[in-house]
Amino acid sequence: MGVRFLHAADLHLGSPLESVTDKQRTDELHRATHDALKRIISLAIDREVEFVVVSGDLYDKRARSVEANDFLVQQFERLNERDVPCYIVHGNHDPLYDGAERLDWPENVHVFSADGVEIIEHPGEEHTTARLLGQSYGQQWVSETLSDEYTPPDSTVPNIGLLHTGLNPDGRKYAPCSPSDLAAKEIDYWALGHIHTPGRIAGANAAYAGIPQGRHIGEAGVGGCYIVEVEPNASPELAFLPTSPVVWHEIEIDIGTAKTGDGKQVGTLSELVSCVVDRCQEVRNTGYTELAERVLDVPVSDVEWEPTGVIFRLNLVGRGAVHDQLDEEAIPWLQTQIGERLPSGTSTVWIESIRDRTSPPLPDDETLREEDETIDELHALVEELRTQQEVQQDLRETVGEVWEWTPAEETEDLPEDRLVLNEDRLDDLIDSALRRATDRIALEHYNVD
């Protein structure tokens, strides 16, 4: 017999959304993490789930404010009024021993201990319908492989494991383990927390619910939670439910190929404004459920949902005539003009920032390589950098003292005076260096000012 429940994680209550300075919008964004949790609770009630699990980081940082604690109590009380239990593990941002709750939890809330894996039998009307296993973080960092101790007594009912982990067997801070470690245990579904991007884990009956409300452009896309249906010794069925009141979205415009609505090549700032507005509107018209489906590996539940706010970051790239018009005054002008022309509709829309990575118009890279031996050798060197592991290791060691090679799950604890260096960032640095060097050589070759 199966069970149906809601899986959420990484609420990060009390965390402000970043990169926005407008007072009215800041106030709206401050409420976003709270509004996302309200929606989670409403979905649990509307979908009539048997229980709710939250896989760590209910709060942002270890400080538990009275406001955040009171809000959580209010929301869990809504579940309590309908006899819906809530099972919780604490993570690295809200370790159990680093701060006591200011208010008592409702009687439907069970918080798993940090002293060892607890096993809870979830009662149905007549008999146990599920078994939950969990262990909270006692301190910010946990170097032990907690999953080793998740051992259910039998498989007569669905066994569900709540675990806050970076899922990195070589990690030292976030309950290190691998997908194969999880698959080796008799757990029918691992409800994971810590990684803020939702998705299933290949090779294990496990999934990250992701963050319900992104806080910056690094957490772009639609946030939400899962409805999970699972039976003993069977693959779980998941459906993603969107919850984020505010959605961050990144748009890239190549000025070398961008066109206006009537098919004209962009050549002026005014035409660039029109092109950007069209692209932003295209994203909105696509529908956010469809956008979520494009990046998720589970179906998105058909719900009537639209965010109250959409924040765009615009990246201008490529070579084109409009490059010379993008001076220091043009960027804020663009941001204002685009913001004024974006229709709000049922949601507030604005531009968080504009990043100018454009270059003067030049022949394409293939032509440049054919006509300039130095550029051809430069591109060959970069191709070697991308394919030779030893060369990449040498590069990592020489990129500068402020960079630190950091696995994805450990970036949040990096010191403020250090910058993250990982595979994606290294590729970005190589691309940027290649583009700058190619432009310098080509400008001299073609005598372009």
Describe the structure.
- By secondary structure, this protein is α/β, with parallel strands linked by helices.
- The protein has three domains: 3-242, Purple Acid Phosphatase, chain A, domain 2 (4-Layer Sandwich); 247-361; 363-449, no CATH class.
- Helices cover 30% and strands 22% of the residues.
- It has helices at 23-30, 32-46, 66-80, 179-183, 269-286, 288-295, 330-341, 365-371, 373-387, 389-398, 423-445; strands spanning 3-8, 51-55, 86-89, 109-111, 118-123, 128-134, 159-164, 189-193, 199-200, 206-208, 224-230, 237-242, 246-254, 309-319, 348-359, 403-405, 419-421.
- The strands form four sheets. A six-stranded mixed β-sheet has the order 4-3-2-1-11-12. The protein has a six-stranded mixed β-sheet with strand order 5-6-7-8-10-9, with no helix packed on it.
- α5 (269-286) packs across α6 (288-295), α8 packs across α9 and α9 packs antiparallel against α11.
- It starts with a strand and ends with a helix.
- Keywords: Exonuclease, Hydrolase, Nuclease.
- One of its GO terms (molecular function) is exonuclease activity.
- Residues 4-198 form the Calcineurin-like phosphoesterase domain.
